[in-house]
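Our preliminary data section would be incomplete without showing what the modeling component actually yields. Below, a chain of 86 amino acids is followed by its predicted structure, encoded as tokens that our downstream tools consume directly.
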Amino acid sequence: MERFPALESNQVAVVTADVNSGSVLNLDLLPDQQNGRGVYKIFDDLHNAVAYAKSVIAERRTVECVIQGPDQETIHYITPKNVKEF
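Predicted structure:
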């Protein structure tokens, strides 16, 4: 898996995974085969990252999203079960 990206203080990164297996997905929402496609989607603010996570989960109920800040801390863990809380 690729290294965590260097983020500016206001940026966040979203990584997706298969909710059943825990396998990290690439940006095409396919299992990451280290093909250079990348696994982190970067956003300039948390609001857009949450909106993205919600839209991905609405399309594919087998995906979960982790939103992380610049220090790689988990800000939100969004799953099909808790997506309505966001």
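The radius of gyration is 12 Å. Residues 12-81 form one domain. Preliminary results of this kind motivate Aim 1 of the renewal.
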